[in-house]
Amino acid sequence: MMFQIQTHSGISLRVRPPQQRAPPGNDEVIHVARMAVPISKKWDPGQILRCRFLDGSPTMKRKVEAVARTWEKHCSIRFRFVTKGPEEIRISFRADPGSWSAVGRDALNRAAFPVFQPTMNFGWLTDTTPQVEYDRVVLHEFGHALGAVHEHQTPTFDRLWDRKAVLKYFQGPPNYWSVAEIEHNVLNKLNPTGMKFTKFDPKSIMLYAFDARLFADNGGPTNSNSAISQTDIALMKSLYP
Asked: According to the model, what pLDDT value does residue 77 have?
């Protein structure tokens, strides 16, 4: 099982064992709920976000750009892929084995993201990674880049966690989190003040695929999605008309 999470520093991090670069398995934690965006992290409507690849093969770059532009169909933000700075989004495939992104305008925080370091990483994508995995991962991370956070922490998330199971899992490998970190990253919902969010949507690109064993409500696992949901589209259109 792999887990992707927004950390204390505002990074969306998907953790997996360093020796692996293959796509995550069926019990992974990936995408699934109606989107939420902290207003303070959103860009200006109509803004052009400049994106620069720091590394990666021509094939990997081409695939990421093509998937990222899917968001342009549903909001006024535009991505301009440049070969030299300045830029708002810096993309790597080698920073570490995980996939993650700064959340919205957090990418401009030079203390967290110095200009020579990436604001987004795709640690297991390769030339031969299946297209569905590119869709799932790239749409999710560019959703973060537009300001979206993980749906399991939105105020409307209505699943019931099995606290004991969650603590046991995330205190173990590969995360080795403390109880406080697990509460912050998984169990606690975000304060609704200053957020724009919708009713929980199990089809959202921003939800993780959590295993059923982490819940106490017998509702089964959460989904693993590889497409932007209609609710994702509606919220992004309202944020970036």
From this structure: 97
Residue 88 to residue 227: CA distance in whole angstroms:
24
Task: Answer positive or negative: Cα dihedral of 128, 14, 143, 26.
Answer: positive
3-state helix, strand and coil shares in percent for the chain, rounded to the nearest 5: 30, 15, 55
- Looking at residue 155, its pLDDT comes to 85
Copy the structure tokens of residue 159.
């699943």
Residues 71 and 227 sit within 8 Å (Cβ to Cβ): no
Residue 7 main-chain phi, psi, to 5 deg: -90, 180
98 Cβ contact partners less than 8 Å away, ≥ 6 residues apart: 4, 13, 14, 15, 16, 121, 123
Q: Sign of the C-alpha dihedral, residues 166, 168, 170, 171?
A: positive
Strands 78-82 and 195-197 turn out to be unpaired
What is the torsional sign of CA 70, 73, 76, 79? positive
Mean pLDDT for each consecutive 10-residue tract of the chain (241 residues)? 37 39 37 46 94 98 98 97 94 92 92 92 96 97 92 87 95 89 88 75 89 94 92 91 92
- CA pair distance 8, 105, nearest whole angstrom: 15
For residue 94, give the 3-state DSSP assignment. coil
What fold characterizes domain 3-239?
Answer: Collagenase (Catalytic Domain) (3.40.390)
User: CB-based contacts of 169: which residues, under 8 Å, 6+ apart?
Assistant: 1, 213, 214
